Amino acid sequence: MSFKNYLSMCLLFCCLPVVAETDTRAKQIRVVFRFDDPSATSDAGIETRLIEAFRKHGMCCTYAVIPFRSAKNVHDPASQEELPLPRDKADIFADAARAGVLEIALHGYSHQTNGMQETGHSEFAGLPYEDQLHKIQAGREFLETVLGLPVTIFVPPWNTYDASTLKALESTQFRCLSADRYGVAHLATPLAFLPCTSGIAGVQEAVLSARAAPDAEPVIVVLFHQYDFYEIGDARGVVTFEQFLETLQWLDQQSDVAVVPMSEVSDLNIDRYLANQRIAQIGPRLLPRMLRAQTQYPQVLLSEEAAHKLWDIQRPVLRLVGFYGSLMVVVGITAFIAAGMFLTKCSVLASRLLLFSGPFLLGCSLIYAFQTGQFGGRIRMLVAMVGAAAYCVGICAARMRRYISGLEPMPVK
């Protein structure tokens, strides 16, 4: 047997385990459209045009409806008049839902911030359980009455909630929670979790990403609002309605894509959500962009199996330890060498200032991080804290070396 043939056989046997593990099922990409904020004050024209667009293509969209919209500013926690969803809108939504064009979700109670967040907004997070339960029950009862349809999906305003929200949803037998990837969850919950993964301007990009993902069952959840359309005249607009229609037409032509309602995505258990959450939290949020794994699929909700495999491929914990460990070593050694040179020439006062500047910088970084609620969330802040800690170690090591070498007397109490 020639060396070339022998090498070919070796490569073949090496590749067999990989081939055996490859998912050969036909890929089916499921896309869910979630339209937030239909209410008493929302644009009825856009809502009707959306219904007709989805009806034309035989698709379904989830409308996250606000039962009692705050009359003035939803970002103001002060008491305001509540405007219930009008009967004419409710009838339009109900007819479309019965035709399979819409699916209705409960989007909070009034979508008004409770003012309990240091940063951002939330209608529910921070409120006592009883208050959250009352809001959820009252909002759901109103919607079910005015629509004549069951409502089993909950979408928290601003995608924010807490453990008490989960408890209230579980006690009222909601089936599905749709927020984002970073919400609180626990293994015992019977709720299905379907976080948003894409905006309306990135649908085609998300589909291409799903095709590239090593997963036969990827899910894309497209979150959009009326202000995303330029026709509304809001500065946040990103697409024209015509462009949106072209997107639906494009999706309709893709043989491996199905636009489905949330209720038809049945494999959204808590294990799948937590597996995707782990990837989203550890890698992208704590590492510089240049060091993030190139196999990320941020616009796709992967299956539990695919998420676990991706975690193993990315090894984000090793990346974190490697990056921040290397940063500490480099800064610590640099501080040690620089301090060793500087301490021989400086006065006692300058020496002490140099020694205590490290803990001072570290303390300032920690205070700022905790006050802004961004501890562990900002890469620059983490780099600053790790660098300050390494600086402290390097300076202290240089000072101790001088004590041990007899170059400087130990301080006497």
From TrEMBL:
What is the residue range of the signal peptide feature?
Answer: 1-20
Question: Which UniProt keywords are given for this protein, alphabetically ordered?
Answer: Membrane, Signal, Transmembrane, Transmembrane helix
Question: A Gene Ontology biological process annotation?
Answer: carbohydrate metabolic process
Transmembrane spans: 323-343, 350-370, 382-400
* Signal in keyword set: yes
Task: Kindly name one Pfam family recorded for this protein.
Answer: DUF2334
Record protein name field: DUF2334 domain-containing protein
Organism of origin is Anaerobaca lacustris
